[in-house]
């Protein structure tokens, strides 16, 4: 008998809810269809271009802003302690 340690099985969303149409993957699908190929993982990757996941650029912007703020705070706090000698 396995112990879950407070974790239950994660429920995954149904892959059929993600649509390739209207995403950059639609172009890939058309180019692959020309020589008779298909992308078996295309529909599974469509989630990256839909909903809240589509705005990943804003997340990168906030992350960069947080990094700049942290570095600025570090330099400021170091300048306050510049005259003090360390042991």
From TrEMBL:
Topology versus the membrane: Single-pass membrane protein
Organism the protein comes from: Gorilla gorilla gorilla (Western lowland gorilla)
Keyword Transferase: no
Subcellular location: Mitochondrion inner membrane
Membrane-crossing residue ranges in chain numbering: 59-77
Protein name: NADH dehydrogenase [ubiquinone] 1 beta subcomplex subunit 3
GO cellular component terms listed in the entry, alphabetical order: mitochondrial inner membrane; respiratory chain complex I
Biological role: Accessory subunit of the mitochondrial membrane respiratory chain NADH dehydrogenase (Complex I), that is believed not to be involved in catalysis. Complex I functions in the transfer of electrons from NADH to the respiratory chain. The immediate electron acceptor for the enzyme is believed to be ubiquinone.
Keywords, ordered alphabetically: Electron transport, Membrane, Mitochondrion, Mitochondrion inner membrane, Respiratory chain, Transmembrane, Transmembrane helix, Transport
Family per similarity comment: Belongs to the complex I NDUFB3 subunit family.
Keyword Secreted: no
Pfam families noted in UniProt: NDUF_B12 (PF08122)
């Amino acid at each position: 008998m396995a112990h879950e340690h407070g974790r239950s099985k994660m429920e995954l969303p149904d892959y059929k809810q993600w649509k390739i149409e209207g995403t950059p993957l639609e172009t890939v699908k058309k180019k692959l269809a020309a020589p008779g190929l298909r992308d078996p993982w295309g529909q599974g990757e469509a989630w990256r271009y839909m909903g809240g996941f589509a705005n990943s650029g804003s997340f990168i912007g906030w992350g960069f802003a947080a990094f700049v703020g942290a570095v600025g705070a570090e330099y400021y706090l170091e300048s306050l302690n510049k005259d003090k000698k360390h042991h």
